Amino acid sequence: MKIAIISDIHANLQALEAVFKQIEKRGVDMIACLGDLVGYGSQPNEVIELIRKNADFVVMGNHDASVVGKLDYSYHYEAAKNALDWTKKIITEDNYNWLNQLPHSRKFKDIGFSHGSPITPEQFDYVYTIDHAFSLVDEYEKLPHINFIGHSHLIKGYSFSKIMVDEISLPRRGFRAQSKYLFSVGSVGQPRDGNPLAAFLIYDSDNEEVIMERVLYDITEAADRIVKAGLSPNFAKRLSLGI
Description:
Elements: E1 2-6, H1 13-26, E2 30-33, H2 44-54, E3 57-58, H3 62-67, H4 78-90, H5 93-100, E4 105-108, E5 111-114, H6 130-134, E6 146-149, E7 155-160, E8 165-167, E9 172-173, E10 180-185, E11 198-204, E12 209-215, H7 219-228, H8 233-241
Parallel strand pairs: 1-2, 2-3, 5-6, 6-10
Antiparallel strand pairs: 1-11, 4-5, 7-8, 7-10, 9-12, 11-12
Helix pairs in contact: 1-2, 7-8
C-alpha cells in the first residue's frame, strides 16, 4: 500500500494542485493531510475544498486551530496574526465548520499521523532536532511503529528505541521491529529547507520504504496572489527562497 503524506499547504493553491498531479502519477492508495491548510497564503477556501475532495483523512494544524478559535495566536508576530485575521474574515461557514471538527491525530494500522509531536498532539510541539526527538523516548510504548508529522516545514527522519535516538536520512528502506520511527514530511505550500519546491512524502508499506518528493509549481502566481490579497509581501518573497 502506498500512502502520500502532505502537510503545511498554507493556502497555496498553486503548490497543492501541482502536488496532487504528482501524487496521481505515483499511483498511491491513500492521501493523508497533516494540517495547516490555512495561514500565510491567499486561497484558503480553494485549498480547503481541494483537500476535502482528495484527501482520505486530515488532522488539524496549529493555524487551522487558530482560525477556528481553538488556539490562542496572540503570540504570533504581527504579519502572521494579520494573515490569520484575514483568513477568519474570508473563510466560508462550511469550510470553517469542517476545519473545526478535524481531529488532532489519526491512526491507521500501526501508523500515526499528527501535525506536531504525536505526544499530546493538541499542543503542537515541534520535532525537528535530536533533542526534540528524545522527548519521544519516554513514550516509546504508546507510539505506533511509524509516525508522520508536519509543523516544522522541514524533512527529517528519526529512529528511536527505549533509550536512544538516531537521525536518519531519506529515502529510508527497511524498518526494524524493535525500533520506532518518526518522519517530518516537509511543506507543500511553504518549504523552509532552502529548497522552494513543494515537498511531501510517500510511504510504501509493501516495500517498507519512505521516499521524498519535490514538485515544481508556479511560485510567481502564488506570490503575486499573496501581494494582491494585501498580505505581507515577505510571505510572497520567501516562497522563491524556500525559507
